[in-house]
Amino acid sequence: MRALAIASALVLALQGARASDADAPGDAHARHHVKEAQVARTIATVAVPAVTLVRADGARVQLARELDDGRPVFLDFVYTTCSAICPVLSQAFAELQSRLGADAARVRLVSVSIDPEEDTPARLADYARRFSAGPQWEFFTGSVEASIAVQRAFGTYRGDKMSHAPVTFFRAAPGDPWVRLDGFASPDVLLSELHPQLVHK
């Protein structure tokens, strides 16, 4: 219950701080908040599809190639007008990169839009600035078909952006299995996945 209270308080704080960007207080997604206080950790088999996405800097790239640069990678799914789940996930990434300090460059953070029709590269770049994203944290959009293909590959597609759930993925290196973290993974949880990778590099 304490974790639920903390997550809910963070959601409310983020909504207040970004009221001009948030959806209406009564929308269904904002009421979704946190369904689970615990984070469920499982191993996921993911075949990253051969799709082209567009980075926030406007570059068209192959997602599989972007993910396979040798670094440990965290990946989540967000959209920029989200007022509940996405700000919490993005804040966790922001705190993770801050706590990593000089080691942040040794880690890849990837956020894929589930609302590509609205999330243009320019809008994603603005969202990235809101969370002080460093160069190791990239945001991607693209066609609706490409976004859905990626969501399906990672087992997160719910048919509608308003129905999405908090999920974060971690892979230690290309070819390794993905760790799936269902729920609001705190920076401490993310660091616990990453720590052995940094120690043994």
Ends apart, CA distance between termini = 37 Å
* Biggest pleated-sheet summary: 8 strands, mixed
Q: Going across the major beta sheet, what is the strand order?
A: 1-8-7-4-5-6-2-3
* CATH homology superfamily name: Glutaredoxin
- Please give the share of residues in helix: 25-40%
Mean pLDDT: 84
The stretches of 5 or more residues where confidence is low (pLDDT under 50) are: 1-36
Counting H and I runs of at least 4 residues, what is the number of helices?
7
**Inertia-based shape:** globular
Order of helices and strands: HHEEEHEHEHEHEEH
Structural class: alpha+beta
How many independent structural domains? 1
Could you outline the blueprint of secondary structure elements for this entry?
Elements lengths: L1 H16 L10 H5 L7 E5 L7 E4 L4 E3 H5 L5 E6 L6 H16 L7 E6 L7 H10 L6 E5 L2 H10 L13 E5 L6 E5 L4 H13 L2
Parallel strand pairs: 4-5, 5-6
Antiparallel strand pairs: 1-8, 2-3, 2-6, 4-7, 7-8
Task: Provide structural commentary.
The chain is α+β, with helices and mostly antiparallel strands and 201 residues long. The protein has one domain: Glutaredoxin. The protein is 37% helix and 19% strand. The protein contains 7 helices and 8 strands, in the order ααβββαβαβαβαββα. Strands 1-8-7-4-5-6-2-3 form an 8-stranded mixed beta sheet, with helices on both faces. Helix 4 packs parallel to helix 7. The chain is globular and about 40 Å long. 35% of the residues are buried.
